[in-house]
Amino acid sequence: MKQLASFAAAAIVSVSAAAAAEIPANIKAGVDNPNRTEANRERDADRKPAEVLAFFGVEKGMTVVDLASGGGYFTEIISGAVGPTGQVRAQNRAGERFEQRRAALEEQFAPFGNITIDVTEAGSALPYEDNSVDMVLLSLIIHHLHYNAESGETMPESSAAIYADVRRVLKPGGVFAVIEHKAPDGATREQSAAWHRIPEDIMVADVTSAGFVLDGSNDEIHNNPDDDLQNVWFDTGLRGKTTRLVHRYKSPD
Fold it and tell me: In the 8-state DSSP scheme, what is residue 41?
């Protein structure tokens, strides 16, 4: 684990707030999009979408998959950021929970004009052609993927398949954009899963095992010195305020 942590530390390119570029106009337009729901706007102070999406490099004309998009928080913003020549694919897992909100999501997304809802069965391949997508965003989901009791302290095979499929659909040079609640390095998979978090070194190891290259990280956007990284955030008043990993991986050219 120490050797892995050293590799991760050497690979990660930290970006300070002072060095961060000015927020591009297209991303400002996405955040300011009048079609966004008020409930999603109320989360902006905690989620800091302008800084996050600027770091990931969302541009006009891109095709972006919002993986496990849920209520469409980032889906809505990316829609305005990629503009009318771009596309946003709001991917969700099939099942009763999704069907209960399908009609509401269809109504919510209708005014945007460039959002498509895609529904896939658990364990199925993503419904996109090889090398067809510019960016895949995965926000606050990886803490569900890095551990199960059967696999123990190794990455579950089902998660390896997900990362491989993300790489399949991305264009050469495409971006896998990841946001996740941080656990302290040195924590085990089992420990961190119980906190609904993941250590940085484990996340880097799991994602890069699919052939991705860590292209950068930003440890300033979601840094909270009051978060000790080893608590169940929804039980400790830290919902929306955790220290989070913000990583940009690239599919090699």
Answer: H
In this structure, which amino acid lies at residue 147? Answer: Y
Q: Which residues contact 101 (CB under 8 A, 6 or more apart)?
A: 71
State residue 131 phi and psi, 5-degree precision: 55, 45
The set of residues, in sequence order, having a beta carbon less than 8 Å from that of 3 and lying 6+ positions away, is none
Bridge partners of 180, per DSSP, are: 245
- Report the CATH number that the domain containing residue 224 is assigned in CATH: 3.40.50.150
Question: What tens digit of pLDDT does each residue of 189-220 get?
Answer: 999 999 999 999 999 999 999 999 999 999 99
Place of tokens 């400790």: 236
- Dist CA 48 CA 55 (whole Å): 11
Determine the Cα–Cα distance for residues 174 and 33; give it in Å rounded to an integer: 25
CB 14 within 8 A of CB 217: yes
Residue 29's H or E segment, with its range, is helix 25-31
The burial class, CB within 10 Å (0-12 / 13-18 / 19+), for 91 is: buried
Residue pLDDT, tens place only, 174-191:
999 999 999 999 999 999
- Number of domains within the chain: 1
Which pTM was predicted? 0.91
| Full domain range(s) for residue 27 | 2-250
